[in-house]
Amino acid sequence: MILKQPQFQAYSGIHIAGIEEKRFDIELTNGRFTKVAESVPQQGEAEAPQQQLWISPGILDLHTHLAWTDFDHADQLRRDSREIEGMQAEAFAATLRTGVTTARDAGGILPATIRHIVKYYQQPLRVQTSSDMLGTADAKGIKHLEQRLNEIYATGAGWVKIMATGGLGAPTEKVTEPNFSEAEFGFIVRHAHANQKKVLVHTWGGVTIDWSIQAGVDSIEHGMFLTRDQSGRLAESGVAYVPTASIYRIAADPKGVLALNPVICDRAARAADAHATAIGYARQAGVRLGFGTDYATPALHGYNLQEFDTLLDYGLSRAEAWRSATRDAAAILGSGHELGQIAEGYIADAVIYAADPYQAKNADQLRTSIVTVITGAQEADLM
Ligand SMILES: [Zn+2]
User: What CATH topology corresponds to 59-332?
Assistant: First the structure.
């Protein structure tokens, strides 16, 4: 159930996910937490046998593609616009149902589409977007880039996405080669920051990670060929790392929901192997990690919690994995002062569970334990 901006809601004796052996009395008023206090047990009174509940902050997915309906863009172009719009609205709904209340769209969705879906489909998902992405076709010098950047700003995007290297479409031995010159890359970052836009960089590894650190981008994405040395410098620089780890395991499985051809499956398998090492380096160095899925098709929207399973398999503790999806993710978006925590004054984006989320065996169990997803924002805040 989705509970939109409740005027007043109270929970007594609820557990906060990740805090053991304490219970809390929590109140929400007009979409904000107005009381978060430890419960005082009633003296001499046996506790009524009632259902226990847990609360966590709403989950932030820092790398989605809510506008895409197909793995191959050519397939989307064959659909009619009504059908695409309906599928996009369903992507919003599925994402919310699984407890994700904030998404950063890493390319594809325009602010106008977000407004439309929030208003006409009544889907209160908070979305930050980069609109269109800058890739190989834009490596045509500074003048061209300046024009493209101005077009992106004109859409109302808050982020600029740089496709700094190839991805699954590139052979493994060439995938870390830069798409832009160092001068072009530096120009994009400086221009975006001068216009109060944040920058996220798709990079599988290599020199573009160094450029990202030097230029002070806001986050790098994927980064499976990150080295130990780079992770130390990444930590020092404060640039966040959003690995999007689960999608490569999914893509590597020829019988999985993406059912890709053997060449692509093999590249994805190599990426997944490298990811476990890269995430280990980042964790040891103290890099700020952000939870992101890169989910982009109807078979994946709504299954975002699978990223937790992969992060845990790759060595994160429960607390680290949850922090990457809540407090740290909010900080990466520049919203750490009002999102990502169960705290008085914070926006009441939250998930209520019937079982302890820190004990969930896997994403399926976690997803099915969700009782209510609460969104604190007013419609106007999301538009
Ligand atoms: Zn992506």
Answer: TIM Barrel (3.20.20)
